[in-house]
Fold this protein.
Amino acid sequence: DKYFKRKKFESRFIISSGFYGPISNQLFYLCKKYNIFLIGFEHGLTAGINFSTSKYIHHLESTTCNLLMVCSNAAKQEFDESNMRHKDSINNKVFVIGESDQKKNVFFPSIQRLITRRRFKIKNNKEEVIIHVSGLVYGGNIRNSSDGPVESYLFNKDKILLEKVYNNINKTVIYKSYPTQRMLHQPPCSSNSQLSSNIIFTDYSDFRYIRSAADIIVTDSNSSTLSWCIMNEVPLIFLRSSICLKLLNDKIENLFKEAFFLIDTDHLDWDKKLKVILNLSKKELIEKWHSKKEAREELNENYLLGPKGSSSLRAANHIDELLKYKPYYTN
């Protein structure tokens, strides 16, 4: 409060990103008190497809800013509903800009692919590479969402993937676990000596900087990581579950099934079904992937990546309009 009293905000606008919890509530309260218009940006793709997010609808990002820029129409619908739950947020607005330009496009893909593959000592640039991107967090049995995994569930899933699936296919696999630190001594997955040499572990590498190496991407993420996995010419296999990290509803699940290769990990033989897809020839896999293009475009536009075009330019133009016609916020 003292900072706001001392500071002279000439523009009367503050731009933020990914604010949650008590801090965001305090900032929004002060902004309203001093007639400052607070603009927020959605952390990333989550609302509109994620089951656990819908359970926290009373506390979503849109309730603690005057305007929230979001990824998709589905996200807007979720945030609009959240705003209507509180008298303090009922006048808050939500504007769709789409996912960030860096997520929707891989810039200089052939150069990035060459550099990334050299980093992992993949000498043949035509060699088929699978990147597994985990969205499941080892949280030390502290579940960060209502349907988050306990340690035993995640350990068993990793074990099946590594020992029964990736250990037995004739393709290079780059395996990326979700970066977490549970204990002072935490042996990495690479310490398992029973794994074959075709499996490479990335430890804590940032996926956005290695995704260009992939010919196939496998993920179970139903949050912001997923948007980094969507590339036009790279088939995506989605590991679905109704036990852990659920999708929002049956409609979303059907859309995922039509747009991606969907494996139901609740079934006992899911590992065999995954191997069948991974063992398809590159030509056959790409043909099947292209047959899903129309469904994928619909899913991307309405639920995942949002409208085509530059999201940064769309956001900048909208803020310009606010500056032009609404120079300050009035309670």
Summary: Residues 7 and 41 are 23 Å apart (CA to CA). The radius of gyration is 22 Å. The longest strand covers residues 13-17. Strands lie at 13-17, 37-41, 67-70, 93-96, 129-133, 172-176, 199-201, 216-219, 236-240, 261-264.
